[in-house]
Write a structure and sequence with these properties.
Length: 362
Amino acid sequence: MSKQKQSHSALNEKPGILSPESISTAAVAHIQQFRKIQPSTNELVSGILSGNITALSRAITLVESTNTGHLAKANQVINACLPHANKSVRIGITGVPGVGKSTFIEAFGLYLTSLGKKVAVLAVDPSSTISHGSILGDKTRMEELVKDKNAYIRPSASGETLGGVARKTRETITLCEAGGFDIILIETVGVGQSETAVHSMVDFFLLLKITGAGDDLQGIKRGIMEMADTIVINKADGDNIRKAQLAKLEFKRALHLFPAKKSGWIPTTSTCSSISHEGIAEVWKTIEDFLKLTKGNQSFFDKRKEQNQYWMLETINEQLKTNFYSNPEIQKSLDTTKKAVQNDEISPFAAAQKLLETYFKK
């Protein structure tokens, strides 16, 4: 076919419009020009102490960072905030998934802010063991509380931590206290594996329960029941009120089977509805009674001293583990040793001992 005929053909492809760049270089240059430089330690600390939420959030991000280069700066911020901490009430809230922890915390948090309290919610979201990601949707679930100027919600990923307590939750508590928050609420994943971690960083441990979920026998377990300072039957509304009252009675009987607490506090049971806010005020009254008793007999302060020692030892264990796996000699021989264990060439215990000897020899 001649060029003249080809040019008149309807099938001839015409030049199109080039696709725009996916990233505008002009926009990138604009952002880089006006992007705020990372604040210094003094700027972060002064911002936290003055109640600046942005400074608090940036400091928490720094503390949660796994970048070893951020560790020294994070420790400086924590140490500077420490003299201004320890003035809040720390409340741990746990329960099985679906018990309504987020709904309860929103109702409870709104009640506390109505009393003039400043409330910080540290919500720990489960991390996927496959993708290692988390939804971190607690701000979406607590849509009323998040708009309250006296409330602060900080979701964190649980990571690989058993029991659903974020690795740096303890340090985050210190930062929130320095920021002027009266009440710290810590919401756990509630997987039922190891709630001792959250119990070892709070003053008051609240266990949420529901009825009609096959949880009656499951709920009466020694570990979690012994740690609870109060058991609250949630979703006590509508047709569920009578069932909630019966569950309250059962748990009250079960609590008498456990040994008395060192503080002298006798755990209580109650019902509430996070939807209608019924029973929420009674929960706070229970916590006030607990604080009056434990501060009066000094057990409140003794427990905090024990917790500080516990977290010092936990930090040592964690740092040793981090140092072990970041050691060049260990990194060099770890994969080979793993394959040897998989192929039954060496027992897991002997392999671990061999790696530890390599580490300590270095």
